[in-house]
Amino acid sequence: MPVAALTPVLESYDVCGMGKSAGYARQRAGTFPPAVYVGRNAFIPSEELEAIRRALIRGATDDDLRELVRQFVAARGQDLDQVVAQRASRSESFRRMGRASAARRRQAAAATGGAA
Questions:
Q1: Contact call for residues 33 and 44 (beta carbons, < 8 A)
Q2: Is residue 107 assigned to a domain?
């Protein structure tokens, strides 16, 4: 079985001419392939990235891109809606952890009389 080449997520956004925020927004909208995780590192399969890049160059609509991404995710043996929902819940979980961590830092600073 051939091994797929993987491109780091942030590099894949650069390849397609978009920033990090736009890339994440496109993933949430289902118009950019969701990441494949290897440990804590996120990657996009290179063949999927190349197909998306070609589609963007030829002016594909969001519906065209969504269908293309659906095909990629189905080929991985996953459901796109489920993958997008998991990504959204993971993002919300990280946001909650960040807010709780910031609150703990403020409380600790207030208790010691230091600045947060």
A1: yes
A2: yes
